[in-house]
């Protein structure tokens, strides 16, 4: 069951959304956003990988870029973690396309979310996935440092630099409509895009929560944080470009956010969270975002879906803190979850990233 709610100050309403309703809304909004000529064409998902270096911090950043292509057939693509379907290196179709920044979860990679990136590319979006040095295995296992998960200053710096490069210096720059900027993040990625949108994060606040009895079953608190003094230099940096729409998938570090700063976030926000969570207690993470954001749309997954159901379908025998990355609880169909969520996410983005009238 998927419960979708619209929260507003002073009252709360709740409705159940069926897949049929979502599909109808998506199709209508797609035509309104991109116009009939583009949507009338059969679009494929193009994909390219680039490696850039932040000239200020000297940090490497890997970009996975997905975009719409017309007239080219997709082929199976091995991302390493999962298998998708793309056109490799094809030409971009369309001009003034909206951009969705994609931020991965702790120790992951942007390509772990090809299920939503490819879908959005086929609907006329640029998706800019950013993988972080120190966390992501795409830079080699020798570069991975588990303590890097606490360095949100590095994360937001990477995301800001990647976005600036993409919209001003990449070969795609002339086809971007920066006035229609969205962001999607899972887990730590959800927290990262919230920081870009103005949410103020405190490592000290999070550490205080993790030291409390309330955090006893919170696996997010089990990651090493490294030198606490070094975290003082890790102040997250908000985006210089206004983000109009945020989608946060089971977002992490909820207790680390200042209450009033979340209340001041102006971007339209869709919070999707796993209620029966096997990694991050819903009440302290996704539920906290829901309670504090001014007017979020909310989808609660309440049929046993866990924290990693938002990753691509995969078969690797990997566990994090004893929780499998690729194996879901009995009765959970990850592919079916993704198909329903793509409809909800696309409908949300279409409404909030549409061209001004």
Task: Describe this protein's structure.
The strands form two sheets. Strands 2-1-12-11-10-9-7-8-4-3-6-5 form a twelve-stranded mixed beta sheet, sandwiched between helices. The chain has a single domain (2-299, 340-352), classed as Rossmann fold. The chain has helices at residues 19-34, 36-40, 114-121, 152-168, 188-196, 203-210, 259-263, 286-292, 334-352; strands at 2-8, 11-16, 43-53, 60-70, 75-78, 83-88, 97-103, 126-132, 176-186, 245-249, 268-274, 297-301, 319-320, 323-324. By secondary structure, it is α/β, with parallel strands linked by helices.
Write the layout of secondary structure elements.
Elements (H helix, E strand, L loop, with lengths): L1 E7 L2 E6 L2 H16 L1 H5 L2 E11 L6 E11 L4 E4 L4 E6 L8 E7 L10 H8 L4 E7 L19 H17 L7 E11 L1 H9 L6 H8 L34 E5 L9 H5 L4 E7 L11 H7 L4 E5 L17 E2 L2 E2 L9 H19 L5
Parallel strand pairs: 3-6, 7-8, 7-9, 9-10, 10-11, 11-12
Antiparallel strand pairs: 1-2, 1-12, 3-4, 4-8, 5-6, 13-14
Helix pairs in contact: 1-9, 4-5
Search tags:
single chain; 357 residues; alpha/beta; Rossmann fold; two-stranded antiparallel sheet; 9 helices
The CATH topology is Rossmann fold
Helix fraction, binned, reads: 25-40%
Output the number of helix runs.
Answer: 9
Mean pLDDT: 88
Q: Strand arrangement, largest sheet?
A: 2-1-12-11-10-9-7-8-4-3-6-5
The rounded distance between the terminal residues' Cα atoms is: 36 Å
Structure described in brief:
With 357 residues, this protein is α/β, with parallel strands linked by helices.
